[in-house]
Amino acid sequence: MKARVKKVFGFLETPVDALVLANSVDPHLDRSFFYLFDAPSGLFEGSIAIAHPDGELDVLASPLETESAHVAAKSDPHVRVHTAGRDETEATVKKLLGGASTIALNYAELTHAGFLQLDKMRPGASWVDATKAVRRARATKDAEEIARLRRAAEIGSTVGGEIPGVLRPGLREVELASEIEYRMNRAGASGPSFSTIVAFGAHGAEPHYTPGDTRLEPGNSIVCDFGAYYRRYASDITRSFHFGTRDAEMKAVHETVEAAQRAAFDTIRPGVSAKEVHLAAERVIDASRWKGRLIHGVGHSIGLAVHDGWYYGPKIDDPLEEGMVFTVEPGIYLPGKGGVRIEDDVVVTKSGYEFLTTAPRQYIEVAA
Ligand code: GLY
Ligand code: MN
Ligand code: MN
């Protein structure tokens, strides 16, 4: 992980003596901790990573993850693991940071309580915000990250292709969500990368709907948005279907979203500003009779988190870079009726992009 440590330091605007990433209690864990320390399993609550400008890393691991920590350290000669109880941890941090006067922290993920503890361990230090540097480093993925993201996306795609075969009248949203998560785990996921969204009928008009007890009825449109974690890396895929009797409007909505997504794909290559991807999709939707019904940005980066720190929308000028991995997810939302969203994961290549997700995207009517 030396290259990743050096990558983060390279993006810092102020020279610092160390970068400290400190986890609190789940869910207040900093995914960047795992960017620098590739532990195969575990939460690492209360654990602290101290990265040095030469690329070396000291990790104070929680006693609950001693084995995982040692596995990670064994495969990386630039990592030193210290496992100890809380009192010893404080003494070790004091010792390791003794000579450091300017220290970077990931303000975006560190809790205030976590900061106060660090401030007590290293009083008088001058703290610097590393949020942008960490985000910038994580934005372009290395080969190992892309391989894991590809596998996470394959798991999502496999399950996406199986959904039509699972649908039956009376199925509840929560049951379909559980089925999706079970199938992803069976296909190799360590768990869902976020809470699965399954929305029947009018619920599909709410992009981040929480599934409930609603039962599937003929005539419903269906939105399923889900993703897998594979070795800590996330996928994020949405597929929309129609159940039973044809609805000409929803079919046309689906075809418009597909066309919007294709237009967005066509813009993707290094150097293009992020807003161009969004605007390409938005233009297609706004030229249709559903003008204004795209109600969110068309994508976000994925990586160690499903929302990995970077979004694109109509005002984002950041240029796309080779190695970025993000979603392309236009949708049309019709309150009281339903919605269609199609979401895929892509990696930016030297000359364009490559799909990570592959499940069929076209309009699928499932017989009731
Ligand atoms: N799964 C939430 C999203 O697509 O952003
Ligand atoms: Mn998404
Ligand atoms: Mn999604």
Proportion of strand residues: 15-25%
Low-confidence stretches: none
Q: Provide a count of the helices.
A: 10
- Return the domain count: 2
Number of beta-strand segments: 20
Q: Report the helical percentage.
A: 25-40%
Based on the coordinates given, report the CATH architecture of the largest domain.
Alpha-Beta Complex
What letter string, H or E per element, gives the SSE order? HEHEEHEHEHEHHHEEEEEEHHEEEEEEEE
CATH class division of the largest domain: Alpha Beta
What does this structure look like?
The protein is of the alpha+beta class and 368 residues long. The chain has two domains: 2-138, Creatinase/prolidase N-terminal domain (Creatine Amidinohydrolase, Chain A, domain 1), CATH 3.40.350.10; 143-366, Alpha-Beta Complex (Creatine Amidinohydrolase). Helices cover 34% and strands 21% of the residues. The strands form six sheets. It has a six-stranded mixed β-sheet with strand order 4-3-2-1-5-6, sandwiched between helices. Helix 1 packs across helix 6 (131-139) and helix 9 packs antiparallel against helix 10 (274-286). It starts with a helix and ends with a strand. The mean pLDDT is 96. It binds glycine (GLY) and manganese (II) ion (2 copies).
Summarize the structure.
The protein has a six-stranded mixed β-sheet with strand order 4-3-2-1-5-6, sandwiched between helices. Strands 8-9-12-20 form a four-stranded mixed β-sheet, sandwiched between helices. The chain has a three-stranded antiparallel β-sheet with strand order 7-10-11.
Task: Jot down its keywords.
368 residues, alpha+beta, Creatine Amidinohydrolase, Chain A, domain 1, Creatine Amidinohydrolase, 2 domains, six-stranded mixed beta sheet, four-stranded mixed beta sheet, binds glycine, binds manganese (II) ion
